[in-house]
From TrEMBL:
InterPro entries: AAA+_ATPase (IPR003593), ABC_transp_ATP-bind (IPR050319), ABC_transporter-like_ATP-bd (IPR003439), ABC_transporter-like_CS (IPR017871), Oligopep_ABC_C (IPR013563), P-loop_NTPase (IPR027417). Transmembrane segments: none annotated. Belongs to the ABC transporter superfamily. The keyword Zinc does not apply. One of its GO terms (molecular function) is ATP binding. Residues 3-257, 301-550 form the ABC transporter domain. Keywords: ATP-binding, Cell membrane, Membrane, Nucleotide-binding, Transport. It comes from the Bacteria. CDD domains: ABC_NikE_OppD_transporters. Gene3D superfamilies: P-loop containing nucleotide triphosphate hydrolases. One of its GO terms (biological process) is transmembrane transport. It comes from Roseateles oligotrophus. This is Peptide/nickel transport system ATP-binding protein. The keyword Disulfide bond does not apply.
């Protein structure tokens, strides 16, 4: 057995209270094995303890962490291994690939420097030897023009290329175990597919084992041999991947499988974890009927040949134009949702920000109830801005960390003179928090005190303070766990039904787009390549690019296997 984790407990010291050290138990007696040349997936929501378990292997935990139990790597207990010996194992025998490569790669070192470092440290190579091997590794992970890219810095590469560089760094010393912590979560579906296929191929080539951490069972089903399902620091179920998908035993595993949006089913609402568990116990709620859309609803927002270019210096006096958005046109009806999909770099986010004039357009028209937003200025534009709001992907970055939730919600109302005084605005803020599933107790807290799903609810509540009619949602649920994602998507549908909101929903997840959108616009290289009603487009796509996007969506164990990926 390559790795055996036995009765692992991890606690975090939280400081003293009443003379006693307070501890929070994050992992509660976890045991599982990782055989040689196999892939084991750790699955669960945020807070389940899966990342803490994995990071315990190499003790990549904060200083206030306390570990008990056994972690046997090739028979050697890593919990009893001294730090110098553990450092020798890190990168050489056990390597890690993390979720966000940009925060893992050093921004001031070139790609070559970062791949060469473990080769020189662990393998004893000279700089010349390490440089040759670095080029070979870049070629192996599929980076085009590897020799030229050796001198690049991380910020000069796309997200998918950065993740490939991280994999090259991890594979530099041919480790026996690769720990991959959510390595595809932030990537669009086609890049996600490429990274999954690459990892499966490299696992077979290098004869290594893979510990794959994810909250997405669709991804796990395609890459894993064994699955370990965790919740609240405990293992709820562990079994071969086929058994997990075809005959799950635990109610939580069944709920995880059920709450992910599907390309084949079209429910009025997504089930969340607690709903599904309650249903299995015979306490389920009555099915919700979807509110029919008004076929004669007026067009509230229309884009006509919208264009956005960026200009860069070229030569001494020259300018180079990059056309990010090329004559995009669409109509959005009141109470409807337009889904915008495409790979990274397709122009979908730039298009959304240009609609809001967060990027000033270089051409076209944006008509809001017949009035061209691009011609408005001063007070006229300020008045219009309250009617069109935006929700970004990362709510922690978009919420002011120094503002309480009360300040966050009241400030927009003060700026736009909504409400006669502070008390009236605070009452409105409180009412809106209830709408998004929170209560008055959060008003005095700060953003860092909330989970990602709660922060996204607060961001949505902030938008609603201004009584908007259109929301631009830019990857608003892509970083959330499947259950939290389901809660936010259900919330968006409820708010749309109650307030008649119209959404422009930008996403790389076609299953999510299918659930929430009435019409889909597909973008590639700044162009709209296909546009149709959601059902029609997903069932009979006309363009090869759309078919490729659909083909890249993870579908779980039934439709793909590790062998298929590695082929």
């Amino acid at each position: 057995m390559l790795l055996s984790i036995q009765d692992l407990k991890v606690a975090f010291r939280m400081g003293r209270a009443n003379g006693q050290m307070q501890r929070t138990l994050a992992v509660k007696g976890v045991s599982f094995d990782v055989p040689e040349n196999s892939t084991v997936a750790l699955v669960g929501e945020s807070g389940s303890g899966k990342s803490v378990t994995a990071m315990s292997i190499l003790n990549l935990l904060p200083e206030n962490a306390e570990r008990q139990g056994k972690i046997l790597f090739q028979g050697r207990d890593l919990l009893q291994t001294r730090l110098p010996e553990l450092q020798a194992i890190r990168g050489r025998d056990i390597a890690c690939v993390f979720q966000d490569p940009m925060s893992s790669l050093n921004p001031v070192f070139t790609v070559a420097d970062q791949i060469m470092e473990p080769l020189i440290k662990h393998m004893g190579m000279t700089k010349k030897q390490a440089l040759v091997r670095a080029e070979e590794l870049l070629n192996e992970v599929g980076i085009p023009e590897p020799k030229r890219r050796l001198g690049a810095y991380p910020h000069e590469m796309s997200g998918g290329q950065q993740q490939r560089v991280m994999i090259a760094v991890a594979l530099a010393c041919s480790p026996k175990l690769l720990i991959a912590d959510e390595p595809t979560t932030a990537l669009d579906v086609t890049i996600q597919r490429q990274v999954m296929e690459l990892m499966a191929k490299l696992k077979e080539t290098h004869k290594m084992s893979l510990l794959f951490i994810s909250h997405d069972l669709g991804v796990v089903g395609e890459i894993s041999d064994q699955v370990v399902v965790m919740r609240h620091g405990e293992i709820r179920e562990k079994a071969p991947v086929a058994d997990i998908f075809k005959n799950p035993q635990d109610s939580y595993t069944k709920a995880l499988l059920a709450c992910r949006p599907s390309l084949t089913e079209n429910p009025a609402r997504l089930m969340v974890i607690d709903d599904h568990i309650a249903k299995q116990m015979g306490q389920g709620k009555a099915a919700v009927q979807e509110k029919p859309k008004d076929p004669d609803a007026p067009v509230i927002l229309e884009a006509r040949a919208l264009k956005k270019s960026f200009f860069f210096g070229s030569g001494l006096f020259g300018k180079k134009e990059f056309k990010a958005v090329k004559e995009v046109s669409f109509k959005l009806r009141k109470g409807y949702t337009l889904g915008v999909v495409g790979e990274s770099g397709s122009g979908k986010t730039t298009m959304g920000l240009t609609l809001l004039r967060l990027h000033e357009p270089t051409g076209g028209e944006v008509l809001f109830e017949g009035q061209d937003l691009l011609k408005l200025s001063g007070n006229d534009w300020q008045k219009m801005r309250r009617r069109i709001q935006v929700v970004f992907q990362n709510p922690y970055a978009s919420l002011n960390p120094r503002f309480t939730i009360a300040q966050t919600l009241v400030e927009p109302m003060e700026i736009h003179a909504i409400g006669k005084d502070y008390n009236e605005r605070l009452a409105r803020a409180s009412a809106l928090l209830k709408k998004v599933g929170l209560d008055d107790s959060v008003l005095g807290k700060y953003p860092h005190e909330f989970s990602g799903g709660q922060r996204q609810r607060i961001a949505i509540a902030r938008c609603l303070t201004l009584n908007p009619e259109v929301l631009v949602l830019d990857e608003a649920v892509s970083a959330l766990d499947v259950s939290v994602q389901a809660q936010v998507l259900n919330l968006l549908k409820d708010l749309q039904d109650e307030f008649g909101l119209s959404y422009i929903f930008i996403s790389h997840d076609l299953a999510v787009v299918k659930f929430i959108s009435d019409e889909v616009l597909v973008m590639q290289n700044g162009d709209v390549v296909e546009q149709n009603e959601t059902q029609a487009l997903l069932h009979a796509p006309k363009q090869e690019y759309t078919r490729r996007l659909l083909g890249a969506v993870p579908r779980g164990y039934q439709e793909a296997t590790t062998a298929d990926l590695a082929a």
